Amino acid sequence: MADQDPLARYNAKRDFSKTAEPRGEFAPGNGISFMVQKHDATRLHWDFRLEVDGVLKSWAVTRGPSLDPDEKRLAVRTEDHPLSYATFEGTIPKGEYGGGTVMLWDRGTWAPVPGKSAKDLEKGHLHFTLNGERMKGEWLLIRLKPRRKERNENWLLRKINDAEAGGTDTLTEEALTSVATGRTMQEIAENKPAKAKGKAAPAKAAAPKRVAKSSSRAGKPPAFKPLQLCTLVDAVPAGNGWLHEIKYDGYRALIAVGGGSAKVYTRSGLDWTDKFPGIAEVAAALPVNDALIDGEIVAYKDGRPDFSTLKDAISNNGPMTLFAFDLLQLDGEDLTKLPNVARKERLRPLVSGDDPRLQFADHVVGAGEKLFETMCREGLEGVVSKRADAPYRGDRTSAWLKAKCIQRQEFVIVGWTASDNKRGFRSLLLGVHRDGQLQYAGKVGTGFGHAQMDELLDAMEPLARDTPTVVGPKNLGRAAVRGARWIEPKLVAEIAYAEVTPDGVLRHSSFLGLRGDKPAADVVVETPTPPPAAPEIHVKVSSREREIFPDSTVTKGELADYYAQVAPIMLPWVANRPISLVRCPQGRGKRCFFQKHDAGSFGEWVHQVPVTEKDGSSEDYLYVTDADGLVACVQMGTIEFHGWGSTVDHLEQPDRMVFDLDPDEGLDFAVTRDAAAHLRDLLGEMGLTTFPLLSGGKGVHVVVPLTPRADWPAVRDFSERFARALEQADPARFVANMSKARRKGRIFVDYLRNGRGSTAIMPYAARARAGAPVAVPVSWTELRDMTSAHPFCVRDGAELLKRANGRGLQGWGVADQVLPDL
């Protein structure tokens, strides 16, 4: 039959008596499906398939689809496949066409963008949208001009820069399990049973998802804690010691999760769970024993958070989103003493899923003025700035600041004036607490429609009284408030305004909505103040002009300034972790030594944690919590910071595993770079997300984040067996023995970093080497083009901060996952 012709090539390539793949039989479909199959054949690739005219048009994407619009991925056209292939997952026998493991990696629907059609494929250019479990938004397929004697039809697959775009190719690196069965490539190859069906790990979140410490989830929602509040300032604070977030236009909320349930508290501690059932539902499903999450609940109008829309959403159970920006407690552990940036990195993997009801509130370090300009230009409310190294305090402090694009705050409704019409009112009368009194603050006569007027009147009439409760200008009770209807001061309204007159009355005000989450007694006048200066470093650095790196003239003062500068991006990795220091008091050219115990000479900014040694004795190990601690170590001659694989709160359960690829002298860096990618692929087949770290020396660290569940012996055992398996599989390339003699021409896979008490260089730490290089996180995309393990030095602090704020490093080093069986 003619309609079977497109599948003739497919059938001719396969022996269906040997392969479990479906026979190619034409079956009309609905024309909207797409899927991607991860295929480990002669070469690992991703088979991208679009349903067109009753078949699956197919391309082999050699490195997989990327969320980075700048990444153009080669997509080699292959034979059309039958629609029945859309659900195939398994193993094609070795020796057969396409022999290897096949995972159903993504699935969903597709459609050409308006004005385009599937027939554009014949023209060599298809612009389309995908709605998959991992691939979303707009994409392009472009056919390349064929070269002489080229047999294959080559195309490029590229992501369009939209809301679903990302900065790197983490899509394939982090999405490591089947959308159909939840299995890794290794588990499919071993024909292990399906784990779970349903939603895949999302494109922008690490996979696999976090596993709670107790599968019974026997915890209970923690009690409410007072919230940290912001101080109003008239400008965004400058300097790199601040992280900056969007100021969302919504309701502040504290989410208490535990035992499979969740409560939603307002800023004052009211239980409003029944008003936000969707957010409570998604929070209750988080895989934790217990957690306390701080955030802001918003609703959208025309793509922007809108307070009035939020009020309607609460009344009508409409769509709402919680933007989570802080984590106060997790699995019984109080996190409030950790630096702000460290708390956010603990929070990120918990709420970085694809459910729109719960999202992570991202931030930038430094560059707050630029973010503020952007927010104001886009019509958003403003920016919240937070000290990167500050703990969480349930009070209003100068460690959290807010700068607003337009002036707005809460006011108490103290009355109203009658309307000339038969319904409604002309304006609301407002008050605010100032100097211990409720003072008159003017009127608001715009911003509400008839439905809101009826709602307000229904709320105000039961509160009617004969006399005013406010004091204020001389004209109060005269012309300005003639005919006023006074009420008890219990209702709170959010008001936007242009300015305040010298006697405290609003001008050009507009009603935004009622606030039920804040008591009237707490409504006080907010007067913006100048922002504080950059966070002060309290440690005095002596001998600042002494050259620590004589080959590059870097001084002790410059090194101290570097660590103070990069503290906001370094602290998530080094804070609250036992550290060993490389101290070079006379500079790197003189005697240097390791120090891990505290002799009491570092001062108040460097802390101690008692650690039980093998012989049963106890020794105090060093750790830091803030920028002052880093600088205090530099004052004592420190250049390098090496950290344990666990934190002081979970000493016996590592939260990361590191494979240090240490090449033999003379090996080109490209050899190490390719070896790191090979480890990424092998660990990815086991379901482990990895991240590369340039060591600042000559090697690459492959970092594997872990949920702190396994103990040290388990992590050490896994890493050793993996390293020895590498050597056994490719002895010309890898060696798992640290002997210099056996390393010749090969790469030492140093798994010894994963023993209790062993350390690895910390991200952004300087190295005591020529040129003052630093260890730097990079994406796997960036690593492909790197030519050395030390491209940055201590004089590149500003560039490193800029890189950390880019999308390419968002979520670097964060993936809650556990060790698989090996």
Automatic annotation (TrEMBL):
* Catalytic activity reported: ATP + (deoxyribonucleotide)n-3'-hydroxyl + 5'-phospho-(deoxyribonucleotide)m = (deoxyribonucleotide)n+m + AMP + diphosphate
Sorted alphabetically, the keyword list is:
ATP-binding, DNA damage, DNA recombination, DNA repair, DNA-binding, DNA-directed DNA polymerase, Exonuclease, Hydrolase, Ligase, Manganese, Metal-binding, Multifunctional enzyme, Nuclease, Nucleotide-binding, Nucleotidyltransferase, Transferase
Instruction: List, alphabetically, the Gene3D superfamilies matched.
Output: 3.30.1490.70, DNA ligase/mRNA capping enzyme, DNA primase, PRIM domain, Nucleic acid-binding proteins
KW Nucleotide-binding (keyword) present = yes
Give start-end positions of Low complexity composition bias: 199-218
Q: Where is the ATP-dependent DNA ligase family profile domain?
A: 313-404
Q: Which cofactors does it use? A: Mn(2+)
What InterPro entries would the database entry show?
DNA_ligase_ATP-dep_C (IPR012309), DNA_ligase_ATP-dep_cent (IPR012310), LigD_ligase_dom (IPR014146), LigD_PE_domain (IPR014144), LigD_pol_dom (IPR014145), NA-bd_OB-fold (IPR012340), NHEJ_ligase_prk (IPR014143), NHEJ_LigD (IPR052171)
| Region spans: Disordered | 190-219
CDD domains, A to Z: Adenylation_DNA_ligase_LigD_LigC, OBF_DNA_ligase_LigD, PaeLigD_Pol_like
According to the record, the signal peptide region is none
**One GO molecular-function annotation for this sequence?**
ATP binding
Enzyme Commission code: 6.5.1.1
Q: Which NCBIfam families match?
A: LigD_PE_dom, ligD_pol, NHEJ_ligase_lig, NHEJ_ligase_prk, PRK05972.1
Protein name, UniProt field: DNA ligase (ATP)
Q: Which species is listed as the source?
A: Sphingomonas aerophila
